[in-house]
Amino acid sequence: MTDAYRRCTLCPRMCGVDRTAGQMGVCGMTDTLMVGRAALHFWEEPCLSGSRGSGTVFFSGCNLRCVFCQNYALSTVHDGVAITAERLGEIFLELEAQGAHNVNLVTPTHYVPHIIKAINYAYSHHISIPFVYNCGGYESVETLKMLDGLIDIYLPDCKYDHPDYAARYSSARDYPEVARAAIAEMVRQCTPIEWDNDGMMRRGVIVRHLMLPGRMSETKEILRDLYDAYGDQIFISLMNQYTPLPHCSAFPELCRTITAEEYDEAVSFAQRIGIQNAFIQEGGTQKESFIPLFDGTGCVK
């Protein structure tokens, strides 16, 4: 497991740093596994949260570090507590015992070796709920292949269709091409879609797009590209919950929420081009209260 961290190339940043020696790349993390929260979460898509909640595990650090990050305390401030891979596996089992419909791994990319060990631990203890890989979409295909057969549901973002915006907001000019390749690999691994008897997703791909203010043309391009590529093989989750937080102040264009008219226009466009497998959000999602506290809940015995 340590070899993957010794010259880290787990994500497309290809930092090559020795995380075992305390060096940090873009994700900001060494090889110490840091988790901010592990608890039932009821604000995911309905087929993931259901009536009992999604068992979310929030990992500290992030390989994207978007300027508008909604989980800034986790991705950039690095709130969280240190645990072992075995403890992570125990957390998975505890979430199942609490009634979680699934184990939801949030921003997991830079800890894939730990996660593989923890999933195998959970499987050896007969876990039966699916694993969800909830990520920013900026993923290495080679790293995703390490997860083939272990992840049941992929939940990536598709943030940008234009390199200039990817560079401005996430310092990742290659994001559009990288995300397209990553999503293709996820679709290869986890389609066709499968459901359980309660209508909960057991296998599949849900691609999220968080609308940003003033980027309607890009939203439409992303919706069209995804539908042209995958049709009804995947679900698309169109999100209006963008919340401007204080750390966005250097980007005036991001200092407002999405209007109801903008969101209605995007939904109408999706319907017009034929998208049927989609999740849309109602009003009232643009609140900081939807951002959980990353205080180590559920992480320590």
From TrEMBL:
Required co-factor(s) are: [4Fe-4S] cluster
Keywords in alphabetical order: Iron, Iron-sulfur, Metal-binding, S-adenosyl-L-methionine
Q: Where is the Radical SAM core domain?
A: 57-182
SUPFAM superfamilies per UniProt = Radical SAM enzymes
A GO MF term: catalytic activity
Gene3D superfamilies associated with the record: Aldolase class I (3.20.20.70)
Free-text cofactor note: Binds 1 [4Fe-4S] cluster. The cluster is coordinated with 3 cysteines and an exchangeable S-adenosyl-L-methionine.
Cite the binding residues for [4Fe-4S] cluster. Answer: C62, C66, C69
Q: Which branch of life, at top level?
A: Bacteria
Q: What is this protein called?
A: Radical SAM protein
Q: Which organism was this protein described from? A: Merdimmobilis hominis
